[in-house]
Amino acid sequence: MQNNGYLRIKEIAAMTLLLVGIKLSDSTPALLAQKAQNGFWLIPLLSFICIFPGFLIMLYLLKKYQDKNLIELMEAITGKWIGKGIGIVIFLFALLTITFDSRNYIEQIGLLYFPKSPTIVLFFIFIGIVFFGAKKGIEVIGETSWLFLTVIKISASLVILLSLGEVVMQRVFPIFGSGITNILTEGVKKASLFAELFFLLIAYKVTKASSMFSKGIVIASFITLFEITLFYFVYITVFDYNSIAKIAFPFHDLTQFINLGNFFTNIETLFMVFWLFAAFLKFIIFIYLATWIFGEIFAIRNFEPLLLPFSFLVIMIGQLPFNSIINELILREMLLTIMSPFFIILPYVLWGIAWGKGELK
Known about the structure:
Helix 5 crosses helix 14 (307-318), helix 6 packs across helix 13 (268-297) and helix 7 packs antiparallel against helix 13 (268-297). By secondary structure, the protein is mostly helical. Helices cover 72% and strands 0% of the residues.
């Protein structure tokens, strides 16, 4: 069942921080470093500048067209069938993002902690847990996100603090890495690093007042940008870009560097626990939102029974890439590049149509 409008600012902020912010601990830095070299830490900032004004326009339009979510808004502005067509594209983007990202996480879990376990077994266990979490509904998901957010962020902050002794500031130079043109180009092409913000708009009506949703997601967006940029900066000053481009999972490598003295070694296991919590919550939120988008497109009010087939579909599609290199450097790179112009342009097109129809007065 859809929500009854009980979530508050803190739950919306927590869901946003977990859904978008966990990019600080996946293989995204290695992807960005391939072309930007040691200037890759600037790409999230440029991507945010490209995509966030359009996101604010979407929030403005949702406020103008009261009592509508993302799909309903597009149908109201462009007409029923065009709106549904755009909705299907957004749903496919969401589904493919979940698929490629989950494969990425399965590779991390397998290579780092369960090297002898078959990928398909890890996939079924991981997505199985995600499915049962998503079945609890958006209100429980929001409350759980807020409940675990504090310990997850404390563990991430601890990683930063303990790694400061390994930082070598000279490694950040030259600041623009492979060149300012490359940095700017990659910043635009990777604007969809923040595409999850648009997927969250399907839940626009989950709060008692729309202003609560807007405040929660906007505040969390800036916190997320700060966190991602900070972690990427630490990665480049600890490892330098030659290493980053070759290290698939810099967050986990960073935890190998740090310790709490001679009596507290191998503390990366502790960070793994909190990282796993964050990963599960990210995909619980994500698969629920994607299924909700599908339900809105086809007017399926009770869409939660679809969580099971979509979870199975994620596993099946996620098995298609032969290895993590194809998944990350080819398929995910291609998806990000395709999604970026779509999400940059869409808000302005919708605003232009609404303004032309005289509905923004």
